[in-house]
């Protein structure tokens, strides 16, 4: 049984944005991402309400604080749970101080609201090569949104983190846009999209936010958007005003243009993070 657990943050106006995926079946139970520290109590209360007494795995797509900031809190509640992450992420889970400092520099007040990550005992942490093959969980190395990003396969689901970007189901139509914060490397991101293609014949579970039933279709859209956005940003290199870039993107990308159909709180949130996406592309194109 799959559940999408909402991890809303009223202080930021974030609803239906940050989430954790739960699988609870007869053979095992696992979480994909745990959200920030400030929502750890909500996550733990939800697990208790659902009768989850044991977690076999916590699968981290990456360790940005909105995905993994609560890992120390959840690990304390479930002391036997094994935590799976990318090899490049291990040291930051063991000692999150540099991750916290870097996040505060980038996100400022948002990071303060997320709260700091508690450290994790290194004996609890596994990388893909340590994963039990009998668990039936596949892992795909998908750097791009972050250098330490990976995606997971289980049953008919592909847990994609932010590789395909940020998604919203608008009821008959969808909103989607890339998530390419600095340090963005186009070739790396595009290679990850290609790498995940053989597994795209599944339902796609987004970190932000929800599920899409046709993985192959949404993968092609993500590829198209990544290339299109890069070219639109490239056209503005001489005068890279983000408001002008966003205006052009709305004109050329009808799926992104549906940002105007989102609730106001979502639009306000997206305006900030779209700026980060554009910033990552600008840095890449300018050779930063």
TrEMBL record:
Gene3D superfamilies: Ribonuclease Z/Hydroxyacylglutathione hydrolase-like. GO terms for biological process: antibiotic catabolic process. Keywords: Hydrolase. Pfam families: Lactamase_B. One of its GO terms (molecular function) is hydrolase activity. The keyword Hydrolase applies. Residues 17-208 form the Metallo-beta-lactamase domain. Belongs to the metallo-beta-lactamase superfamily. Class-B beta-lactamase family. This is Glyoxylase-like metal-dependent hydrolase (Beta-lactamase superfamily II).
């Amino acid at each position: 049984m799959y559940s999408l657990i909402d991890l809303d943050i009223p202080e930021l106006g974030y609803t239906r944005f940050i989430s954790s995926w739960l699988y609870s079946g007869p053979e095992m139970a696992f979480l994909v991402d745990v959200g920030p520290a400030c929502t750890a109590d909500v996550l733990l209360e939800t697990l208790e309400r659902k009768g989850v007494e044991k977690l076999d795995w916590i699968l981290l797509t990456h360790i940005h604080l909105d995905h993994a900031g609560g890992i120390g809190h959840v690990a304390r509640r479930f002391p036997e749970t094994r935590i799976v992450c990318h090899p490049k992420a291990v040291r930051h889970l063991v000692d999150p101080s540099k991750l916290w400092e870097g996040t505060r520099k980038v996100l400022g007040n948002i990071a303060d609201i997320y709260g700091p990550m508690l450290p994790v005992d290194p004996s609890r942490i596994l990388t893909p090569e340590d994963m039990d093959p009998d668990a039936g969980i596949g892992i795909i190395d998908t750097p791009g949104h972050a250098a330490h990003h990976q995606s997971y396969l289980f049953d008919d689901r592909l847990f994609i983190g932010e590789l395909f970007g940020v998604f919203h189901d608008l009821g008959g139509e969808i909103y989607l846009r890339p998530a390419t914060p600095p340090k963005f490397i186009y070739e790396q991101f595009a290679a990850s999209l290609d790498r995940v293609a053989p597994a795209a014949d599944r339902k796609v579970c987004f970190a932000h936010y929800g599920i899409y039933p046709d993985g192959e279709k949404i993968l092609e859209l993500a590829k198209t958007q990544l290339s299109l956005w890069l070219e639109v940003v490239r056209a503005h290199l001489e005068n890279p005003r983000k408001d002008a870039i966003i205006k052009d993107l709305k004109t050329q990308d009808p799926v992104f243009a549906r940002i105007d159909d989102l609730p106001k709180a979502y639009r306000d949130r997206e305006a900030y993070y779209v700026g980060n996406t554009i910033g990552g592309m600008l840095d890449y194109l300018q050779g930063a």
